[in-house]
Amino acid sequence: MGDYPDYPSIAEHGLIGDLQTSALVATDGTIDWFCSPRFDSPSIFGSLLDSARGGHFRMRPRGGDFQTKQLYFPDTAILITRFLTAGGVGEVIDFMPVKSGIPSERHRLVRGLRCVRGSIAFDIEIAPRFDYGRQPHEVTVAEDGATFAAEGTTLTVNLIRDPGLERLGQGVQTESGDLRLSLSLSEGQTRGVVLETNSGSSPRAVPVAEAQQLFDDTVHFWQDWIGQSTYRGRWREEVERSAITLKLLTYAPTGGLVAAPTTGLPEQIGGERNWDYRYTWVRDASFSVATLVRMGFHEEATAFGGWLRDRISEQSGSDTGPLNIMYRIDGDPNLPEETLDDWEGYRQSSPVRIGNGAAGQLQLDIYGEAMDALWHAHNSGLAIGQPGWLAVSGMLDWLADNWDQPEEGIWETRGGRKDFTYGRLMCWVAFDRAIRLATEYGRPAPLARWIEQRDAIYNQIMAKGWDAERKAFVQQYGVPVLDASLLKMAQVGFVAPQDPMWADTLAAITAELVSDSLVYRYDPSASPDGLRGSEGTFSLCSFLYVDALARAGRLEEARITFAKMLTYANHLGLFSEEIAPTGEQVGNFPQAFTHLALIDAAITLDERLGG
Q1: Is the Cα dihedral 406, 407, 409, 412 positive or negative?
Q2: 514: β partners
Q3: pLDDT tens, position by position, 316-360
Q4: Contact call for residues 579 and 564 (beta carbons, < 8 A)
Q5: pTM exceeds cut of 0.85
Q6: How far is it, in rounded angstroms, from Cα 120 to Cα 113?
Q7: Quick one: how many helices (H) and strands (E) in the chain?
Q8: If DSSP codes are grouped into helix, strand and coil, which group holds residue 175?
Q9: Fewest CB within 10 angstroms: 175, 453, 484, 556, which?
Q10: What is the pLDDT of residues 82-140, one digit of tens each?
Q11: φ, ψ for residue 120, nearest 5 deg
C-alpha cells in the first residue's frame, strides 16, 4: 500500500455523531473528517482527504512515545481513545450531544481529556479549513477559548474548566490562523474542549459538571435506544454495534439514511474510483426498513418509510423516471458533481469528488427496493393514505411501460446501459409487493395489468437471465458473467432456496466470485464498467453470501464464512465498503449497506441454527 505517514488507515477510525452530522476520530486522537451542519455540508476538518489543506483537530500526548487503544463506551456512540505512556495513562472522550428532529445550524462536539494514572501532557491543535479549505477564516483567542470565523460559519472553542481552578495550559494563535494548546494533567484531573458551530456566543469556560451532564445524557440516549432492540440471538454485540452505526448515519429531521458519512475514500489506493456517499440512496435505505423491523426498531423503519413515501408522492425524479436513485438527506434531487482539484486525495487517490454524477442514471432496481420498503413499513404500522397510494399506482404504471429496457444497473457502472438481470428481478419485486398491498389491504389497482407485468418479468428472467451452459443466473442477458447482486434472488422470494437452478447459481458464484469468505461483486475484466483500475471485495456481497448459504441450508459454510468476515471489521466493529487484497479496508467508511447486510446475515443464520 506504500508509506503514507500523514494518512492513517481507513480502518483506524471511530465514528461519532448527533443524528444530523458526524465526525471521524483516528486512533491517534485526530478528528480528520467533520462536516457541518449536515452530513452533506462542506467539511470543516478534512485532512483525511488532504493532510496539508484539509484541516484537523488533534489531541495527543506530547512527543511520539505512546501506545493507543480505542473503544466505545458500552452500548453507546461515545468514543474513548486511550493513550498509554511511560509516565501515565490519559483518555480522550469524544461524543456529540444528540440533536432533536429539527434541522439545526448549531452542533456541539465534546472532547473530554482525563488523566487516569500518573501524569500526562497533551498537545492540542485546532486547525479548521472551512468549505473544503476554500473559505479563509479569522481567529480570535479569548481567555476561555477562541472563535474561528469564516463566511457563513463560526466555530467556537470552549475550554472545559471549573471557575477558579488553576490554568493547566494556554492557547496560542499560529501564523496560519490555527490554535495550539498544551495541557499537563495529573491523575484524576479532567479538562477538554467543547466545540460549537454557529453558537452565536463568545467562548466560555464549561464547568466539568456541565460536561459530565452532557456525557451522562448522551449515554442515556444511546443505551435507551439500543435497549429497544428485540434481537437476543448470536453475535448480539456485532449486530447492535451495526445498529448503532446505522442510527449514527440517519438524519433525524427527515429519517434519511446516508450511504456513508464520507466522500472520496478510494476503492483502490491511488485509483479513480472515489465517490461521494453522503446522500440517501433509495436502494440502500429501502433495505434498512426490513432490517430495522427485524430488530424491533419500528420508529426508525417508519421514519424512513415516510421519507420514501414523500419521494414517491413528489414524483420529482429526472427524465429517467419518477424516482431518482439518490437524494440529499432532505429529499433534494440535485447533486451536481464537481472535483476538488487542489486536494491530493486520501493517499494520493484523486480526484476528490463532491456531489454525485450517477444521480441521473436509470437504475430500475430502485422501484423494487422502494416497494419492498413500503410493504414492510405498511406491515409495521405506516399505513399508506389515499394520496400516497395514488402516487404508488402512478409509479407502477410508469414501470409497466418502462421496465423492459437497458439500464445502468445496481453498481452504477459508467460503461453504458445493459439488460441487467438484477434490475429485472427487482422490477418483479415491485409488482409483487404492489399486488400484495392491493389485495391484502383492499386498495384499488389495475391488478390484471400488474399481474401480467410481474409474470412477464418472471418468464423473461427464466428465459434470458438463466445461462444453461453456465448453469447459473447471470449478470446481464446474453453475457455469461456472474454477479453477486443476484444473491438476493432467494431473499426476495423470486426462487426457492432449495431450487436446483438456485443451487447451481450459488455453486457458480462460490467457484468464481468467492475468495475465502470474501466476495467480489463481479469481474470487471469480463464485464467492463467504464472505469480504470481494479477493486477489492465488497463486504456487502460477502454478507449477502452468508445469508444465501444459510437460506440454502448450508449452515456450516455460512457459519465459518460469517466468522471469517467478522475478522475484517476494524477494532470497533466497523466496516468500510470493500476489503483490499491485502485485507485492508478501502472505500467510504463506515458503509451503511454493509452493516445492514451484516445484521440480516446474523439474524438469518441465527434463525436457521435454531436461535
Answers
A1: positive
A2: 519
A3: 656 778 999 999 999 999 999 999 999 999 999 999 999 998 888
A4: no
A5: yes
A6: 10
A7: 13, 28
A8: coil
A9: 175
A10: 999 999 999 999 999 999 889 999 999 999 999 999 999 999 999 999 999 999 999 99
A11: -155, 140
